[in-house]
Automatic annotation (TrEMBL):
The keyword Repeat does not apply. Residues 16-456 form the Aldehyde dehydrogenase domain. It holds the Pfam family Aldedh. PANTHER family: ALDEHYDE DEHYDROGENASE-RELATED. The active site is at E232. Belongs to the aldehyde dehydrogenase family. This is Aldehyde dehydrogenase family protein. PROSITE patterns: ALDEHYDE_DEHYDR_CYS (PS00070), ALDEHYDE_DEHYDR_GLU (PS00687). Keywords: Oxidoreductase. InterPro entries: Ald_DH/histidinol_DH, Ald_DH_C, Ald_DH_CS_CYS, Ald_DH_CS_GLU, Ald_DH_N, Aldehyde_DH_dom.
């Protein structure tokens, strides 16, 4: 029995049914809250903020570590909810990761900066921070938003994705057991509630992770109150494999850079440019790994790939693959639903001989699909990799890390990895460029993003 799930789920009469991503069976009911509920939560958070700030960094960090310990203690229960809602294999790992990130924010040192002429630069709380989260890493990304905000003395009102609310409600329940009342509040509502949160006059800062289209609407909504923004938006990350690369040595890392969490990662590898001299070998190596990767229910730890989380995203994945095939691209492996596993499983798909203007290259597929694109000139590969409005991440793969780093300098992305893709760290800033958003998360820069500056001159 999952007592944490029982604590946060509503009754069938009052709540909205939430489905298991793999089986599509009802696992619980999310509360249906209104704009009035949101207004009340923001008012309470505003009242709680001053006393929370007054506790100081040391005490806030101590309480955050207590929450992290409790998340670890409930990681199995929390992980089960994550796997039910999101579909990922071993949701327990996401729960432990959230605890790790919470400790990272608690432990990061941010001192006043000494300036010239006896001046000091201080970082002070903003007020109430709004968090609007996605469905692909509901608990982890919630902590990415909440942890630095709390550390800097803000209170938080969070709206989880309508697809994965129960895991975030369970996370916030753990926070509430250790923090003063109204410091962190979750509001489970529809898009109307999300729009009201983004435009609310008492919100000082909005942190959003999700699509570029929604990010643009949040920018518009926030213009009335001039709320500060951190936006981590869509990514269409390119990878470039340089000539002379040992394909066997990188194939596993390359594959999982694209297919971790069944490809449902903002900073996953989504377009791969491979030099003609090793193109066929790379395609074959990736296809072999796709065919060998065990897929199925996330509750079975023998699996590595789960379902696409929701029907709308599944339809996008299927449409992009179908369009590529109709354009003459070669479906090396996959290219069809795995109907024997469940309604939202799609076989891991490698697409070869695909053109740059195919939808699967131009658009972010956010699923278990990787187009592999041939090139002959490295300068041309860089130009093509940069030919997108997104600029979240990118990677360069090659035998000489220094030579790869020179290529990395030329790629338009917030993070460029060398012989890896997608790894993040609590102490290393992360953020996008172009239409992938703005603002930094993690580390000292992430703390600064959750604060206002104040200069004191003596």
């Amino acid at each position: 029995m999952n007592e944490l799930l029982q604590t946060v789920t509503a009754t069938a009469d009052t709540g909205r049914p939430i489905l298991d991503a793999a089986t599509r069976e009802v696992i619980g009911h999310a509360p249906v809250q209104s704009v009035a509920d949101l207004d009340a939560a923001i008012a309470a958070a505003s009242l709680a903020q001053a006393s929370w700030s007054a506790l100081g960094h040391a005490e806030r960090s101590r309480l955050m570590r207590l929450v992290a310990d409790d998340i670890d203690a409930h990681a199995v229960e929390l992980g089960q909810i994550i796997t039910h809602e999101q579909g990922k294999v071993a949701g327990e790992g996401e729960a432990h990761g959230a605890a790790h990130w919470l400790r990272g924010a608690a432990d990061t040192v941010l001192e006043p900066q000494q300036l010239a002429e006896g001046s000091e630069l201080h970082y002070v709380p903003l007020g109430v921070v709004a968090s609007i989260g996605p469905w692909n890493f509901p608990v982890m990304i919630a902590v990415w938003h909440i942890a630095p905000a709390l550390r800097m003395g803000n209170t938080v009102v969070i709206k989880p994705s309508e697809n994965t609310p129960l895991s975030v409600l369970a996370l916030v329940e753990i926070f509430r057991r250790h923090l003063p009342a109204d410091v962190v509040t979750a509001i489970s509502g529809d898009r109307e509630v999300g729009a009201a949160l983004a435009s609310h006059p008492d919100i000082a800062k909005i942190v959003f992770t999700g699509s570029t289209a929604t990010g643009r609407r949040i920018v518009e909504s926030s213009s009335a109150n001039l709320a500060r923004l951190t936006l981590e938006l869509g990514g269409n990350d390119a990878g470039i494999v340089l000539p002379g690369t040992d394909v066997d040595a990188i194939a596993d890392t390359l594959f999982w850079g694209a297919f971790m969490n069944t490809g449902q990662v903002c900073a996953a590898l989504k377009r791969l440019y491979v030099h003609d001299s090793i193109y066929a070998e790379t395609v074959a190596a990736l296809a072999a790994r796709a065919e060998a990767a065990p897929m199925g229910s996330g509750h079975d730890k023998a699996n590595r790939l789960g379902p696409v989380q929701n029907p709308a995203q599944f339809d996008i994945v299927a449409r992009l693959v179908r369009d590529a095939e109709e354009r003459g691209a070669r479906i090396v492996t996959g290219g069809e639903p795995a109907v024997e596993l469940g309604p939202l499983f799609y076989r891991p798909t490698i697409i070869a001989d695909v053109d740059d203007d195919a939808a699967v290259v131009v658009e972010e597929q956010f699923g278990p699909v990787l187009p592999v694109i041939r090139y002959t000139d490295v300068d041309d590969a860089v130009r093509r990799a940069n030919g997108t409005e997104q600029g979240l991440g990118a990677s360069v793969w090659g035998p000489d890390p220094d030579a790869a780093a020179l290529i990395a300098q030329r790629l338009d992305a917030g993070t460029v990895w060398i012989n890896q893709h997608g790894g993040v760290d609590p102490q290393v800033p992360f953020g996008g460029t172009k239409a992938s958003g703005y603002g930094l998360e993690f580390g000292v820069e992430g703390l600064k993003a959750m604060a206002a500056t104040k200069v004191i001159r003596r």
